[in-house]
Amino acid sequence: EEEPDPSDLSVDHDFFQEQVWPRLARRVPAFESLRPRGAWAGYYDHNAFDRNGVLGPHPKLENLFLAAGFSGHGLQHAPAAGRAVAELVLKGRYESLDLRRLGWSRIEEGEPLE
């Protein structure tokens, strides 16, 4: 209930200093001596279906390849996802890693990847 309005993307420095930072400092004592020098607020893509990335060609839109919906893990998955999409575009198939299970078919079939 105390979190700032998510539709307002301005940074609420007071909320961080009064609510978030003290909890961080209690959990990780090294935060006691650290202070943020900058901040941003924004949205990230979120796959509500199964919280996993959606990777590969769109089933209905020709020439549309996606690497989306990684639900906050995009930076961690970016190297492999980028390579996989590049292979699909250039070679028409996965070569390094078979990532077909991250494709659209699981969504169309209603079978989340657990």
From TrEMBL:
Alphabetical keyword list: Oxidoreductase
Domain FAD dependent oxidoreductase: 5-88
Keyword Oxidoreductase: yes
One MF annotation (Gene Ontology) recorded for this entry: oxidoreductase activity
GO cellular component annotations of the record: mitochondrion
Function as written in the Swiss-Prot or TrEMBL entry: Required for the assembly of the mitochondrial membrane respiratory chain NADH dehydrogenase (Complex I). Involved in mid-late stages of complex I assembly.
Protein name: FAD-dependent oxidoreductase domain-containing protein 1
Source species of the chain: Pluvianellus socialis (Magellanic plover)
